[in-house]
Amino acid sequence: MQLQIFILGILCEGNNHPYEIKKLIQKNISDEEIVKVNDGTLYYRFESLLKKGYITKIEVSRENNRPERTTYGITDQGREALKEDIYKSFQTFSNLRPLYASLLFLKHVDLAKIIDLTEKAVERTKKRFQLQNDSHLPVWWGNYSKKISENIDFITSHARSNIEYDLDWLEKLLIFLRGTAKDRD
């Protein structure tokens, strides 16, 4: 979904072709886990978006002996799909990375809705943190092996740290979104 969001978001800015979008991704997003892109995946995604009616071919050109270059534009259906994908990314994420592509294109969505979804995500994360803090190993587990119990404590500590970090980041995101919403008014 992140690659689709990125393609549709870039096409909202203006018509473009897959190779140029690939260069934009490679130049501006160094982390492969945010948007994974290779030629096969990219061109497959463009074909998929074309079949869904989210994008349309604008122009096919050829310069000298180079391969044909197809320029695409976004359709109204594609603009709606972008919005829905961004909303869905805020509703369904299990870790924060899938939000990165969505954050790049917030100007195309209703910020009040994103703020609401982020507030709900903060509450879900607080509950996860509380559950993690409240969870205790069954009594029989501690009797099983002291070493395993220590290992579980080590793993649990890492899980708590990650949830706490996510919660802190989401709360900062909420402040950022509210500030952005005020600037739009």
TrEMBL record:
Domain Transcription regulator PadR N-terminal stretches: 7-84
Entries under Gene3D superfamilies matching the protein: Winged helix-like DNA-binding domain superfamily/Winged helix DNA-binding domain (1.10.10.10)
Pfam families (alphabetical): PadR (PF03551)
Protein name: PadR family transcriptional regulator
